[in-house]
Amino acid sequence: MARLYSLLLYLALPFLLLRLAWRSRHAPAYRKRWGERFGLYGQRPLRAHIWIHAVSVGEVQAAEPLIKHFLARYPNAGVMVTTTTPTGSERLRSLFESAVRHVYTPFDLAPIMSRFLDAIGPRLVVVMETEIWPNMLSACERRGIPVVLANARLSAHSAQRYARLGGFTGETLRRFAAIGAQSPADATRFQALGAPAERVRVMGNIKFDVRRSGSLLDQAEVLRRRWGIRRPVWVAASTHEGEEEQVLRAHRKILDRLSGVLLVLVPRHPERFERIAALVERRGFALARRSADDPCGEQVSVFLGDTMGELPAFLAAGDAAFIGGSLVPTGGHNLLEAAAAGVPVAVGPHTFNFARITELMVREGAAIRVTDAHTLAQCMGEWLGDATTRAHVGEQGRRVVRANQGALQRLLDLIDGIYEDDSGTNG
User: CA nearest 134: which of 38, 16, 3?
Assistant: First the structure.
């Protein structure tokens, strides 16, 4: 089965490269640094004892406290972070600048992975969420490098797909030194697929361990003064193709009911910024763009958040939020940054990427599920017009976040124990 996996991946390589080229039509960064995906780095100094893999923006955001911990506790170890997407790379750079190293994720083929490990020389690998690469795990096992699957989640649907691979899945999972599962259900699924029970620990979800810095609050205050202290503001965060039309229809309905409302629209992918700006203007809304530092006077009804890394500040500065990727079948995004800021949250029907978090928030009265532009307008209109209701839902969100914190420290204790035992170092 391992040979078949590698053969299929070799056959898929031309199509993977074509996909990168296709995506580069709107995001030119996808056509750059292809050598890194083949483990080719020239003479660049890349040595790092700790390798963290985070696919894209969401995983980089989740890994941020881990990276900060490693930099502080092991200042001489060096941290390498790999991402699959340029947006993940850009988010990493905005958070850490040159404090950590970055290359794009190498393809999971044995020769490529060997070149990568030769270049990096890691002593510990931390993989965020559910990235399971058989050849990487095999190569690390041969070299005695422990691999930890952190903040791991496995849906019932994904577990069924892995189960079709039979013993190959169990053989692969047994190569993890530890699996830090988000929930008992996740842990049970990993064990059912063959992961050794003694290596699977229920940690909780580190995304609940949201840390709001003083600088974030300062940024939010500056933004709010820019938008208008008294005007109602709602944020449509991480929207995808097909959602902006619905969000703008909802905004038109809200403006018919409440004058002066500002929509802060933040598309998920930067390659779509120009198209969304054009869409807003075609729909007849007065537009201000963050990237252009446009003034946001009372005549402006849509503020386009067309920059990277500012979404947490946008959410903290708003009165209410809709979290995108959920009115279309993308699977939704993280609600918790808004909830930690005390901002009431609405989501659409498609939230399978964050199913447990969303179900908990809705059940506890900390979020509301909407189905379309009409129900989104009703929800936002009610919150923006009633400060008491808005504050109650927002406070419920804060309470849910606080009640579920602690996973980060449990995960750090687990990883530190493995790294220090393996390398014989305490920093």
Answer: 3
Whole-prediction pTM: 0.82
Model confidence over 188-200: pLDDT tens digits?
A: 999 999 999 999 9
pLDDT tens per residue, range 99-154 = 999 999 999 999 999 999 999 999 999 999 888 999 999 999 999 999 999 999 99
Q: What amino acid is encoded at 389 in this protein?
A: T
DSSP line for 369-424: E--SHHHHHHHHHHHHH-HHHHHHHHHHHHHHHHHT--HHHHHHHHHHHHHHHHH-
Catalytic residue among 59, 129, 243, 310: 59
pLDDT at 426 over 80: no
Question: Quick check: is 395 catalytic?
Answer: no
Place of tokens 């996740």: 186
Cβ-count burial 113-135 (b if 16+ within 10 Å, e if not): bbbbbebbebbbbbbbbbbbbbb
Spell out where 161-285 has E strands: 178-181, 200-202, 233-239, 262-267
| Backbone angles phi and psi of 52, in degrees to 5 | -115, 130
Q: Which two tokens stand for residue 70?
A: 């490693």
